[in-house]
Amino acid sequence: MSFPDKKITFLLADDHSLMRQGIVFILEDIELDFEAVHASTLQKALEAVKSNPIDIAIIDAHFPDGTSLSILPEIKTINPDIKIMIFSGIDENVHALKYINAGANGFLSKLSEEDDVKNAIQRMIQFGEYISPVTQALLINSVRNPKLANPLLSLTEKELTIAKMYAEGLGNLEIANKLEVKQNTVSTVKKRIFEKLKIDNIVDLIDILKEHQ
Length: 213
Description:
Elements lengths: L7 E6 L3 H13 L4 E6 L2 H10 L4 E4 L2 E2 L2 E2 L4 H7 L4 E6 L3 H10 L4 E4 L4 H14 L5 H12 L1 H4 L7 H11 L4 H8 L3 H15 L4 H11 L1
Parallel strand pairs: 1-2, 1-3, 3-6, 6-7
Antiparallel strand pairs: 4-5
GO biological process, one term: regulation of DNA-templated transcription
Keywords: DNA-binding, Phosphoprotein
Organism: Epilithonimonas xixisoli
């Protein structure tokens, strides 16, 4: 890695201290020479990357101050050599591709067995990436079906327009007035957008628009 004595510096970013400590136990079990930098928010994770020579970042997907999807490009800009593994309880089938596309080098479910977590970390150390069988299948399918890689392709022009308005902070009534349609029409379109993108809140919608536009 980046140190002469081969010490590996990990960033463990999760808003639950027990999860971070659990990873420390696994790192100790692997018998690595390592240093662990802890972060409980996205802001602290960014500060840690700026002030420490992080080799591998193990980051949760969701924090009280947002989703890590929003900071992955910034982390890579600060430290282009950093390797990032998303370690989260969110559905890998639904979310893994967007994190890989945003710059993550691996994605692992928190529901994984301890041996799988060890294997994933060891692969991150040896190869700089960890692609699980689930994510591998998603990547292959995304080549065959580009809509998986870019979910915005599944939206109609009208749906995309309304999605952008929501992302700009407009409400149902404002959107209805601008487009000269009924308010319940806008609500129906919003529901359809969320179903197609497999999301349930505006924050996720903003993240997808940032990533794919």
